[in-house]
Amino acid sequence: MNRTFGALALLFILGVLLIIANPQYGLKFGLGGDDWQKYRYTDQYYIEHGVEEVGGTNIVTDVVFDYRGYDTLGEATVLFTAIAGAVALLRPWRRDEDGK
Amino acid sequence: MENDMGVIVKTMARATIPFIGIFGAYVISHGHLTPGGGFQGGATVAGAGILFLVAFGLNEAKKRYDKGLYSALEGLGGLAFLGAAMLGLSVAFFYNILWRNKIAFAGHPGTLLSAGYLPIMNLAVGLKVFTGLISAMMAIALFRRWRK
């Protein structure tokens, strides 16, 4: 019974999210005005202006390294932190060396 | 202690590791033209290193792994990425000034020497991912806690 209610609640939340996220009659967040769609849905802009503004014919690289460069910087930081944490956790500690 | 695999696996690894490395280098260096980029190519080159460790064993890999060199190369890759991002700091962070002002790497779109700082960033990120993954792999292989 509880699981059924949980599944129904999840479906309801999903439906509400779908209505909210619909570009036709959903919430308009971000910049106001009539051209809010232009600022929110930027994929067509990248496809049309990517080669001329950034230069790479691979639009994904244009987006990843130029338009969304901060995200890539954070990704490199995540990789560095993960490796530093792995090395710091896995290295032999002083307590392991004597006996046990 | 013998912890490598047999003759067949070692021979196949000798034959395939150069090709995996060449393919990874191609993916990195053509990251702004064809699918792929620094992350994917770096992971591919690191796959060659993992194949080396699996096929030839930990002792052989330990002889060829230099902790200081790999740490320095990873830091160099990260710093080159940040430096390429800071080239256009007079306008904005991550501003592709090499391409927009036609300073360097400003060939026709579709050629190898185009797209401004994208090849530099791809090389830097590829170096960083490769050395980082090799370091993580060697840490996991070297520092096992379980007893025989």
TrEMBL record, chain A:
Q: Would you tell me the protein name for this molecule?
A: MrpA C-terminal/MbhE domain-containing protein
Keywords from UniProt, A to Z, are:
Membrane, Transmembrane, Transmembrane helix
Task: Tell me the ranges covered by the MrpA C-terminal/MbhE domain, including all copies.
Answer: 43-96
Q: Which organism is it from?
A: Thermococcus paralvinellae
**Biological classification of the source:** Archaea, Methanobacteriati, Methanobacteriota, Thermococci, Thermococcales
Q: Where does the chain cross the membrane?
A: 72-90
Which superkingdom is the protein from?
Archaea
Automatic annotation (TrEMBL), chain B:
Q: Name one GO cellular component term.
A: plasma membrane
- Membrane spanning stretches: 12-33, 39-58, 79-99, 119-143
Answer whether the UniProt record assigns the keyword Membrane to this protein: yes
Residues annotated as domain Na+/H+ antiporter MnhB subunit-related protein:
8-134
Identify the keywords attached in UniProt to this record, alphabetized: Cell membrane, Membrane, Transmembrane, Transmembrane helix
Q: How does it sit in the membrane?
A: Multi-pass membrane protein
Q: Which organism is it from?
A: Thermococcus paralvinellae
Cell compartment(s), UniProt: Cell membrane
The domain of life for this entry's organism is Archaea
Write the protein's name. Cation:proton antiporter
Q: What is its main location?
A: membrane
List, alphabetically, the NCBIfam families matched.
PRK08386.1 (NF006248)
Entry annotated with the keyword Membrane: yes
Q: Which Pfam families match?
A: MnhB (PF04039)
